[in-house]
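Case study B.
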Amino acid sequence: MLPFNLGRFSDPPILILASLAGSPKHGYAIMEDIEAFAGVHLGPGTLYGAIARLELAGLIEPLPAEERRRPYRLTASGVAFLREQLTGLETFATMGLQRLATV
Amino acid sequence: MKLNTYLLRLYPRLWRERYEEEMLALLEQHPLSFRDSLDLCLGALDASLHPPLGTTGLSRSDRTVQLVATLRRSMLTIFCAWVGFLLAGWGFEKMTEDAQVQAVAHAHSVVGISFILFVLGGGIAVLAMVVGGLPIVLTVIRSALARRQGGPLILLTVPMLAGVVFWLTTWLLGANDQPGIQQLWPLLHHKGLFWVTLLTAAIASPAAVCFAVVRSEISEQVLRFAVFPSVLAALAMGLSLAATILWGIGLQASAPHLFTGDAGLLRSSTTGTWLGIVSAMALATLLTGFFLLRACSVRSALRNATE
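Model:
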């Protein structure tokens, strides 16, 4: 588990987008992946609440179902949105580290 | 049946049609902890409060149809809750007509002011509901006249007929107290007739209005407009509820003998009547709040879809 709080980047939608940035995944795979890379356990209600919101916002889209499981992937808007969010985080982290270097 | 399936049944129908299978597949792979069960319950509440989330698999036109139907159901439920609130408020108003209670209201400002606030909240709630409901009723009438359908018009007369029947019953009950007439109406001796008439009128009136609205074509704009007055009505109901609670606390503090006495409806316990009225008002306000949140979520989704 990560030893620090991810702050607003631990919001379920951002975590799901980051998970799907690697490859399309279904619900259980997203849950496992987020637990592995962020140390955050998303409950099934929270996970699907966020998936529905992301789908409604057009940031992710469902792929044809594989048996009962339905994989999701990022849309072009989802990629742009995630890039914007992560660039903001990168800028913030760079600035913070530069200031720390002078301490 | 497994707990997973029971918990997923808490979700709205549209949501289940879209996500149930894949959620079940996930839950079969992932053992459900207590925390996850709680998370599912909260997820079901979230999905119920945000109906647009369950419509992601629908086409644009189907989605609009479903959202308008959801908005209409929400507004009708708010209307029914409002009727329940009015009835409870009417009971409270009757209870405060007691001479001893009136005397306490004049002597103790907390009891007096809380009653004024109750009346103010009730008045605002009625006005708000008239403002929001009138365009819907007019649409029902216009639609019935245009389609030459008498059904919705007849249904709209039910509240008036129920009012007349209720008024006649109370008049007969009053007349029944006169000597001589007592023999003619032995049945009316029973207070049960009063309650049966009241409950029948209270159930039949909103039910008839709801049927009339469901059987008519109400435009999305009219339903969307009704959300604003409903917000005001909900706030006013909250004010009336708070004032009624304050009134009871004030009465208990200033006239404990009266609070524990029999100044309630039909000479029943004051505390029991007050608690019953507060519970009914609280339930109606909670229902209004819940369905108002649903309505606001749907309204916002419909507005975004048309912009």
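The first helix of chain B runs from residue 3 to 8. The remaining cases will be described in the next quarterly update.
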